[in-house]
Amino acid sequence: MRPCLEKVVGEMEDHASRDETFVEQDKAFHRILFEPLGNQLLTNLLGVFWDVYRTIYDAIDTDLAITQPVKTAQDHRDILNAVRDRDIEKASELISEHFHGIRALLANRQVEQDGRAN
Question: What CATH number should be reported for the domain whose range is 3-117?
Fold first, then answer.
């Protein structure tokens, strides 16, 4: 397993233990995880995702980045462990759940914004 992933997850856990967010480590985790695939389209899409995510994060007056840092850090630890164990099915399931959580968070934020606009 690439030691960089372990380092990044450790940094996430350190931030989470202080109830701090870790957007840059989250971004690095996904970049390091998917880089070995050599899929330039995926790499570009992840880059666009993080650019949009950062724009949204900077534009609103709330902590959209990570609302549950301990859980989010544990999610990344679980993904890392599945990858390390070469459990492709588990890793895929965990990554899918992780991105579903991000989509749900963004959707909830949109509903909150729409409710305030009315």
Answer: 1.20.120
Handedness of CA 47, 100, 19, 76 (dihedral sign): negative
CA–CA distance, 8 with 32 (Å, rounded to integer)? 9
Tens digit of pLDDT for each residue in 92-112? Answer: 999 988 877 666 666 666 556
Alpha-carbon gap, residue 50 to 47, rounded angstroms: 5
In this predicted structure, what is the pLDDT of residue 118?
A: 56
Domain residues of the chain, as ranges? 3-117
pTM of the model: 0.76
Helix, strand, coil content of the chain in percent (nearest 5):
80, 0, 20
Contact indicator for 64, 105 with CB cutoff of 8 Å? yes
